[in-house]
Amino acid sequence: MRTRSLSEVSSRDLRPLLEEESEHWNDELLWDFSEVCAAVASGLDRRTLTGRVLQDGGRSLAYCYYMMDTGRAIVGSLFAGSPFRGQGLEEALLEGVLADAQGRVGNERVECQTLFSTAEDADRRFERAGFASRARHYLVRDLTEPVSPQGREHHLRPLRREDLPAAARIIHASHEGSLDAALNLTYATVASCRSFVETLVLRSGCGRFDPEASWIVDGTGVILASHLSACNGHVCQVSVVPEAQAKGLGKALMIAALDAFRRQGLKSASLSVTVDNSRAYELYRRLGFALRKAFAAHAWVRPPARIELRA
C-alpha cells in the first residue's frame, strides 16, 4: 500500500471507489451523492483537487480531499471501500490531509463536518490536531407519519429569488454568537450568508433546491429546503431572528416544509443539528425526527488565534 497525492491520479483511478461511495451515502443518509462524486472526478481530471488517496497496486482503497475558500480549507469526504474500514487506514489518511491543510502557506483556517466519513476514529484525530469541535446529529423523519398541526398563525409566504438578501440577513442575525458561527465561517457575515443562500438556491449546493418547501416570514424567519434524492427532502437551513424565537415560528416553518414534502410524495425528510442547540433539537424531536448518524463539526485557526466555544 502507498499514499499518493490526488494530483497524481485521474478519475479513472478512483471511479470504482467513487461509485461505491455514491451508493454508500445513498443507503446510509438517503443522499444521492452522484453529483458530488462527479464533481470530485472532474476536479481530479482538471488537477484542481487537493488531498490524498491510499492505493494497493492500481486499486484505490480510500481517499480524502479538501477545498480552498479564501484562506480557509474545507475538508470533504473521508471514504474507504467496505473491506478496508475499521483498520485505521482512513484515520492515517486524514492525519496526512490535515497536516497538509494546516501547513499550507496562506491558509489560516481549516473546517470539517464528518458527516461524510467512514472512519470510526476521525473525530479524535481532529482533537489531536488542535481542532475545536462540537457534536452534531443527522436526523431523519418518516413522512408517511402525519405532521402535527401548526399552532398560532404566522404569515409565511413562499421564498422568491428577490428574498435572498433578506434571507441572508435573517440567517446571519440568528447565528450571531452561536456555536455554529464559531465553527463555520459561512455564518460570519451577512455577505458570507448571502453567498451560502445563493449556493443553496441558485447552484444546488445541497441537493436540488425545493421552492415549494422553502418559506419566509418577512424580517423574522426563513426555511430553505431541497431534495437530496428522489424520495428524501432536506431542510438545509431554518433560522429565526433572536427577538422572534420561542414564539412558534420555527415550528411553523418546519411544518410548512414537511407538509410540502408530503404533498410532493417524498418518503422522508432529513436535517442536521448541533447537539448543544437544545431548543432546536427538542423541536425536531417533537416533530418526529430521529437520529440517523452522529458526527461532529471541527474548526482550527492558526495560532495565536483561537476559536472560543461557549460551554
Structure characteristics:
single chain; 311 residues; alpha+beta; Aminopeptidase; 13-stranded mixed β-sheet; 9 helices; globular
Notes on the structure:
The protein has 311 residues and is an alpha+beta fold. It folds into two domains: 2-130, Gcn5-related N-acetyltransferase (GNAT) (Aminopeptidase), CATH 3.40.630; 141-293, Gcn5-related N-acetyltransferase (GNAT) (Aminopeptidase). Helix content is 34%, strand content 29%. It contains nine helices and 13 strands. Strands 1, 2, 3, 4, 5, 6, 7, 8, 9, 10, 11, 12 and 13 form a 13-stranded mixed beta sheet that branches. Helix 1 packs antiparallel against helix 2 and helix 5 (164-175) crosses helix 7 (190-202). The radius of gyration is 20 Å and the shape is globular. The protein starts with a strand and ends in a 10-residue tail after the last strand.
**Structural class computed from helices and strand pairing:** alpha+beta
- The first-level CATH class of the largest domain is given as Alpha Beta
SS strand fraction: 25-35%
Biggest sheet architecture: 13 strands, mixed
Q: Within the CATH hierarchy, at the fold level, what is the topology of the largest domain?
A: Aminopeptidase
Helix content: 25-40%
What is the distance, rounded to the nearest whole angstrom, between the alpha carbons of the first and last residues? 43 Å
**What is the ordering of alpha helices and beta strands?**
EHHEEEHEHEEHHHEEEEHEHE
Q: Report the total helices.
A: 9
Poorly predicted regions are none
**Dominant shape:** globular
Specify the CATH architecture of the largest domain.
Answer: 3-Layer(aba) Sandwich
* Overall mean confidence score, pLDDT: 95
Q: How many strand elements?
A: 13
* Rg, Cα atoms, Å: 20 Å
Count of structural domains: 2
Mind telling me the CATH superfamily name of the largest domain?
Answer: Gcn5-related N-acetyltransferase (GNAT)
